[in-house]
Design a protein that fits this description.
The chain is of the alpha+beta class and about 160 residues long. It has a single domain, classed as Alpha-Beta Complex (Nucleoside Triphosphate Pyrophosphohydrolase), CATH 3.90.79. Helix content is about 20%, strand content about 30%. The strands form two sheets. Strands 1, 4, 5, 6 and 7 form a five-stranded mixed β-sheet that branches. It is globular.
């Protein structure tokens, strides 16, 4: 038996622009400089790819027709929350997330990006070099981001 039930199922999107830079948003709920790629939880009965497109649009305003699916991470990746956050997030039900990750290409213009969404998660955004990602994310997600850089490296 696995411990997968202890992890919230989710998805993440590494979105590349035409210059192979990665989209990151600065979290609205963090006091530190915490940037991350779009991600979110899978609703009951929802397909992971459909979730990725929904989350991307909910967080960035980018509609699905402006996104090209380039690659899928071959395995689900997990991260664990620090002990001090476990009781605060997701009503204490999970110790972390187990995520499907997708590498995508942004086909639109910068004016198609709008983080002032119905339920904003970010207060700023930017394009960064892939190698910068681990230094921008909260420490407990750094290994996951490093793994993604390895898995998607051939396209970066």
């Amino acid at each position: 038996m696995t411990d997968d039930h202890l992890y919230r199922r989710g998805v993440g999107v590494m979105l590349l622009n035409a210059h192979n830079q990665v989209w990151v948003g600065r979290r609205i709920d963090e006091t530190d400089e915490a940037w991350q790629m779009p991600q979110g939880g899978i609703d009951k009965g929802e397909d992971p790819w459909a979730t990725a497109l929904r989350e991307l649009e909910e967080e960035t305003g980018i509609p699905p027709h402006l996104v090209e699916r380039v690659a899928d991470c071959p395995e689900r990746l997990r991260y664990e929350l620090p002990k001090e956050l476990r009781g605060k997030l997701w009503k204490g039900k999970y110790v972390g997330q187990l995520q499907d990750w997708y590498l995508c290409r942004f086909l639109g213009r910068e004016t198609d990006i709008d983080i002032a969404t119905k339920h904003p998660e970010f207060n700023d955004w930017k394009w960064v070099a892939p190698a910068e990602l681990p230094d921008l994310i909260v420490p407990f997600k750094r290994d996951l981001y490093r793994h993604l850089l390895h898995e998607f490296g051939v396209w970066l």
